[in-house]
Amino acid sequence: MTTSLQPKQIAQLEAIVGTENCLTAGADRLTHAYDATQRRYLPHLVVYPNSTEEVSRIMCLAHAWRLPVTPRGAGSGFSGGALPVMGGIVLVLTRMNRILEIDRENFIAVVEPGVVTADFQRQVESLGLFYPPDPASKEFCTLGGNIAENAGGPRCLKYGVTRDYVLGLTVVSAQGEVFRCGGRTLKNVVGYDLTHLFVGSEGTLAIVTAMTLRLLPKPASKKTMLAQFASIGGAARAVTGIIAGKIIPATLEFMDAATLSCVRDRSPIPLPDQCKAALIIETDGDAVHAEAQMAAIAALIAPHDFLGGQLAATSEEAERIWQVRRAISPSLKQLGPDKFNEDIVVPRAQLPDMIAALEEIAVRFQVRIVNFGHAGDGNIHVNIMVDLSQDGVPERARQAVEAVFQAAVRLGGSISGEHGIGTVKAGYLGLEIDPVAMSMMRRVKAAFDPDNILNPEKIFPPL
Predict the structure, then answer these.
(1) Are residues 122 and 197 in the same domain?
(2) What is the share, in percent, of the chain residues with pLDDT greater than 90?
(3) Cα(77)–Cα(157) distance, integer angstroms
(4) What's the structural domain count of the chain?
(5) Residue 310 covered by a domain
(6) DSSP string, 309-368
(7) 266 in helix, strand or coil?
(8) CATH of the domain at 301
(9) Which of 20, 213, 339, 346 could disulfide-link to 350, CB 3.0 to 4.6 Å?
(10) pLDDT, tens digit, for every residue of 97-113?
(11) In the structure, what pLDDT confidence band is assigned to residue 333 with cuts at 50, 70 and 90?
(12) 307 & 281 share domain
């Protein structure tokens, strides 16, 4: 595999995208060498294509040169999926940021991968439509990155994840071929389902250059409540009680005691010391339905160490409730300068057991663990906060991460709910995927990309 470029080759790439969109300076390469993991791998150059045709021509050259190509959106991922581990080309798709079509009769949209998720949501909502997937980074992450990681978010409990809204894709293969899969219809069983194979493949099989997305009618009303509990066990039981009561809220987020201690001083809503866990609960639909569901939820959670709740009467009050959740990430540094951000998922009924396991792991390895996330679907964001400069801490942190993954799999869960595998979790894939399935996956990768130039060194552990 080639990992260096000659001036003549750079000139060929410049002829495709323009000199201003083919970056070779050290500062530009360094800017695209890392993602949210803060791991760093320097590419040989960075290109910004503006069309499917340009992506195709770039991939034709990369295939001929056997040059690694790393597709990239906003670079906001937590698993190292956008890291150019083998150098080569970083292919940034943010110039391809056009909303090509919004079909209000068929409830579909056609968009390019560089469209920012929240911008797209605001555009369709202005037309009375709704695109539910809402990752926490939606104000800057791109739809192409959401496709690559099969992103979720708080609303996936009721509405599902990105994969559930992808009807069709235009993709460019590792060899530069352009083809389409799926279509514009809800039903399509013609041939293999390549569309959903590409969703969540982390840019290792092909490069998505356009997508057809399913939309819904925008809910007419929404009710939001911050529920406070005297114990994390009570909050976990409340979650299972809500679902057992046959109510599926639009969102059901949780925060544990360590999380609340971090945000207590920044919270716009009082969080008394006796509050050891909290849930943010939203219902939506028509006004009567949303209000009736919230009333039923209040009755269901009352027996579970419930201290009380703040029910938003206005959109401004709802925004204050969500400010509590958004204050978490910037507040965590007070617990330690270094963070291991994992996103395990377990069956909802096992949520109390997983919380107990996390508490035991924190004690066993003498690390601080902060937990929050999407309780309704069992997706926990486990944040191990440490100071890696201290003796013995790096190894204890590594052991704690592995123990977290082992506990999740033991409870019937997964080592990743929405962040993907990338480079960070590749070494743990064998905890969840059996050897035969792993072999099948490697064969799929080899069938699409026999030269292993598309986002190499991702997902699979080294052989």
Answers:
(1) yes
(2) 89
(3) 21
(4) 4
(5) yes
(6) EEE-SSHHHHHHHHHHHHTHHHHGGGG-SEEEEEEEE--GGGHHHHHHHHHHHHHHHT-E
(7) coil
(8) 3.30.70.2190
(9) 346
(10) 999 999 999 999 999 99
(11) confident
(12) yes
